[in-house]
Amino acid sequence: MITWAPYAFVRLTLALAAGIITYLYIGTQLPPLLGPLLGLVAVYAVVQVWASRQPSRSATDATGLLAIAVLYLAGATLTQEATQSRRHNHIYRFGGKIEFYRAVVDDYTVVRPATYATTVRVSAVRIAGQWQAAVGGIRVSIPRDSGVVMPQYGDVWLVRGAPAPSKPPLNPGEFNYRRYLEYHQVYHQQFIHPDQYRTLAHTPPNPLKAMSMRAARVLDGVFREYVHAKREYALSSALVLGIKDDVDQETRQAYANTGTTHIMAVSGLQVGLLFALVTWLLTRFFGAMPGFRFWSAGVGLAVIWSYAFLTGLSASVLRAAVMFTFIILARTWGRQSNMYNTLAVAAFVLLCYDPFLLVDVGFQLSFLAVLSIVYLQPRIASWFDFRDKALEQLRPWQPRAVQRLWRGAGHTADWIWQATALSLAAQVATFPLGLFYFHQFPLTFLFSNLVAVPISSGAVYVGVVLLLLKGLVTLLSLLVPAAASILDWLPRLVAWIFEQMIWLFNEYIFWIGRAMPGALLTGIHVTAPQAWLIFACILALLAFFAVRRLSWLMVACALLGIFAGSRVWAAHRLAPDEQFVVYSIPRRSVCGFWRGATAEIVTTDSLPLSETERTYRIVPGIIQREARRVRYYQGWEGVPLAVRPVAPGVQVLVWQGLRVALVSGRLEGYRQPVSVDVVVLRRNARVKAEEVAATFGKQPPVVFDSSCKSWYILRQDSLFQAAGIQVYDVAARGAFIVRPPR
């Protein structure tokens, strides 16, 4: 007999998620699934009718298993149908034949130091002078030149030229931005010059979203007007509205280092705070009114969705709003006792709307954190009861002041412990994802969140009050224009309090980072299977503490042993590995010499790497190899290898038996043959194919490093290939990697 657990929607959601995961891994090998799904649904309907006439338990079990199979196939089918690249008119199928395309701006615009970045959705393309309907997303960038207007949601563009397919990761361990874009149905990228596009009209795909984004910008203007310090304004807008355009990199890094990045994103925290405040106010003042349970739910839903609308209907706040919507509905109908089913329903609806949400980091962290809090927070909180401990110290003969002090201390200690339990519970389920996605773990998360969350929560309330007051003052000023300057003092006073809270919040986060600089564990590389092993070990330990069976502890120990073995094997496999790497970093010449877990990174142009270049181009490979000693050099001075100049602008280096020629000057007039294994051309070296063949031979591959211009590579590529010399362009194909001869 199959004994079903009482969590119906949990089972169904897991089956749907399993189907989605199956398609993500092997989707390209699957045939169209819509027909088989409809057939399986018909079989399920027949079996359901048959089972309803059979009183046996086996008939019910068979129906349940078939329902799970239907949802498993439905998950794969939904993902397949949501994959735009499968459509016959996707721009992927037209290649470089596109002369012009018409598209609409369909996303927020990210403001970068030199460019605007956004996503456009194609509606038509012109090929051989003929227009035809097409679909596809393109991630575009345009320069922030004078006269260039920031793209707005709903702008309809006519663009000249064909977009290029998104680039894969170009360096070892680098973030797979191509896969990230594909999960958002974007398969192309294009840098568009100002003279390459024209705005034809303004037709938002979703008028409601357009209104929401305009409302968010208006509210952002309120903070810009009243919060004067730039850093505090940037954080206030991020905290209340989710607009992070002006948050500087130093602040972002400080929050990441202390485990408080989630506070800067409008998500479950802000929605939960509003939900809690509205619930408390309604219960406090209207709890005894008839039908309170139903109409208060309507008010709660209205507040949550109004806030979601005013913050631009971003993905994170929509996810939180849907989650709290189902929580409110479950509570209203008296079904809030099983929170797991409620969360499963919310996840089920979201995955049906967009199955690719399953691989969204925010989606994963949100649901795992809430599930962990629901299950673990009460259990952790029950370890200590500070309130009862404080009440035990009360004596009848004690003065009232002493008794109040004991009660206050008990309430305060209990509140601190409850907050600590909540933070610990959230970390239990989410820290494997933190290791997998962010390669770090902040040991200060408890100290930072214990103070930062209450301050930021109060700041959210004060910020919302400021927006409401500004709206009220604006309305009254229209009615009584003469009182406008007097009425404006009220929002200014609230804004001053708000700014001081933000300042205190910011200073505390930076102080934590300065006071505990070694508390951030960085450079942690965990593969996807290893992350699954950590999750499985956590589940086994939770099962052991729940049922007190030694077998579960043995399972946890076995999983931990497998995890440790996988780490040892990875280190053993990398220990003897040696690689020479020419990195793909725009406009830079950078080489790496790897020996197991040690490396020398050399910028051959003698200019130091910027923090951005190091963080996004070099560090991922360091984390992937779990390197213990990495040294950076500017130029060849001090590098532990032999470097020999053979001509002006021509050097030959020897490392572990590998001979590499670095050419940035001319070879004209140099006729002495040099035996090398690789030739690296730098800085648009003025050389000819026959000169390279005469000096180095035709066997060594010629590598164009990232300091070479695209026009230079395009011109030289065909000439070298015609001469029978193999070429490699790191800007287009990624880092060039070769191992020394054995």
Protein architecture, described:
- This protein has 742 residues and is an alpha+beta fold.
- The longest helix has 39 residues, at 400-438.
- Among the domains are: 8-82; 91-205, OB fold (Dihydrolipoamide Acetyltransferase, E2P), CATH 2.40.50; 360-443, no CATH class; 528-574, no CATH class; 575-742.
- The strands form four sheets. Strands 1, 2, 3, 4, 5, 6, 7, 8 and 9 form a nine-stranded mixed beta sheet that branches. A six-stranded mixed beta sheet has the order 16-17-18-19-20-21.
- It contains 23 helices and 22 strands.
Topology (SSEs and partners):
Elements: H1 8-26, H2 34-52, H3 57-82, E1 100-105, E2 110-111, E3 115-127, E4 130-133, E5 137-143, E6 155-160, E7 164-165, H4 177-183, E8 186-191, E9 197-202, H5 207-226, H6 230-241, H7 249-257, H8 268-286, H9 292-310, H10 315-332, H11 339-353, H12 361-381, H13 386-391, H14 400-438, E10 440-442, H15 445-479, H16 484-487, H17 489-515, E11 520-522, H18 528-547, H19 550-574, E12 578-582, E13 590-595, E14 598-603, H20 611-625, E15 629-634, E16 642-647, E17 650-655, E18 658-663, E19 678-681, H21 689-696, E20 702-704, H22 710-722, E21 727-729, H23 730-733, E22 736-738
Parallel strand pairs: 5-8, 14-15, 18-19, 19-20, 20-21
Antiparallel strand pairs: 1-3, 1-6, 2-3, 3-4, 3-5, 6-9, 7-8, 10-11, 12-13, 12-22, 13-14, 16-17, 17-18
